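Q: what does this look like with 2-deoxy-2-amino glucitol-6-phosphate bound?
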Amino acid sequence: MCGIFGYTGHNPAAPLLIGGLKLLEYRGYDSAGIAVLNGSKEISITRRAGGTDSVARLAAAIDELTPAGKVGIAHTRWATHGEVAERNAHPHRGHSGSVAIVHNGIVENYLHLKAELKEAGYKFLSDTDSEVIAHLVAREIDRGANLAAAVGNAMRQVEGAAAVVATSVAEPDKIVAARLGNAGGIVIGAADGAYMVASDIIALLPHTNTVCYLESGQVASITPDRCEITQLDGKAVKTVFVTSTRSADMAARGRFPHFMAKEIAEQPESVTAAMRQRVDLATGRIALPEFNLTPEQALAINRAVFIGMGTSLHAAMNGASALEALARIPAYAENASEFRYRNPVLDSHTLVVSVTQSGETADTLAAMELARDSGCLLVTAVEAEGTQATRLANVTLPVRCGQEIGVAATKTMTATMVTLSLMAARLASLRGNLSEQAEAKLAKALSSLPALTGIALERVEPIKKLADDLTAYSHLLYLGRGAQFPVAMEGALKMKEIAYIHAEGYAAGEMKHGVNALISKDMPTIAIAPRDAMFDKMVSNVNEVKSRGGRVIAVTTDGDDVMKSLADDVLYVPLAHTLFQPLLNIIPLQMLAYHTSVALGMNPDKPRNLAKTVTVE
Ligand code: AGP
């Protein structure tokens, strides 16, 4: 939710700020803006709002009239308070215009602060909570504080989680960044004669690999040649820069029309990356060096809870099934936003596995904090390095698929599923539940997964045809049983998210309990029915839909002819080990949603009202 970028150096700031915003656009794109400081004279602000191309329109405006100045801050917005309009876009000016800020997060006590500031004569020009921070910083400066102290003091008055970058004409070569709680990260990059700050390292990588992650409760005061970090109250903190191993080309779209298409196509490689040096084909052993539990620790676990949101929740559901199946540990998955508020029973024998590709999802982080404070063993499966999830967890399992830019999660899900299956195998082995033969069989099945994923991807033509058909419908039903239930949920989520078609993912056993009433020719059913133990049950569901006049699109495995005789359309996927069949079944559903979105003339990379990283609850 919202992307932040800041620059202080010896080059014109505006083009660099726009470059940063382009790389952060996936975090929110309903509005975009920059503030450039022209020495101690003035802060020039340019903003654009509306649609999903605000960054492009801002870039065009800056091309026409480039504000002079070598210091600036920038923001892409995902609206939380106030409609999508230029006055609500960031940066926001503080009282008298001598301060500008960009903000990510929610100021929970903004109504109270706004009333107080208004009473004191501060004029509000936007409907946002963020503007409160601008005025608080300005008030602190008017009271004699320097910019860093002003930001620190302002943040101490704010309730909620926030990431802020500020600049002021009083200190014209400086930007100040601060973090409070988990509202998205702040990464500082040290380049030659310049410093930059960004919500995500991806925006720094074209300039530098030398980075420092700001912690919650810290303030960074940055000039072109110096970065000093303190706590909010000004107490000095050691500033540690590290070298990132990531590369800038991770964000390039290459020959693909959309990032989502590229990320779907990358899955044979990303699935491979998730198991590289973790699965030894020669010995048939599965290793997961990051998961270095002792057998005693593994045996002490008496249940496991997997938490996540959206697609990550679906990956979590798959992980919980794998763990229960292999390690025989009672396991279930739960929506992190529910888990965090319902006072769950947790103790040191509970394994909590958080799934979050971004490592920044607010609800998932809050649920992790609860698990950590309850003494649970806390594992996180993440894509993004150095993020808050990795700092909260006892064990971090990188899913290693590379940065995903498309808002719809695809390769992060499948890489996470592989990673969690390795964890399940390791725990099973440590607890004595996995024989060497069974482990070797799993290793072999894993090794065939990249090729099978590639085969599933090649079968795109029937999917494109079907996608054209689906543009005519407003409702879709996705059905699955057992391990295919999360697949049905994920297929429906993808369709809703990028094609804006109402779609429900259901456990097929629920049909008779209400959902059958919806069946008609106007709502096709997508039945996930591979040749597994649940196949016959799915055949019954498909028959029920057909006998009520519904259209059925079956996803089944190669060689089946039962679904072929029953369903209106069949999408075949290669047959795999039971544990990995869900991963293969997801591939045609990702492609179906993608091509439906394209056929409807939408941009699947930037669905309306959504953002890649949800740093507010
Ligand atoms: C899925 O396509 C979405 N982008 C969304 O559901 C996402 O999976 C969810 O917001 C969780 O994100 P995370 O993995 O970064 O925690």
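The longest helix spans residues 436-458. The first strand starts at residue 3 and ends at 8.
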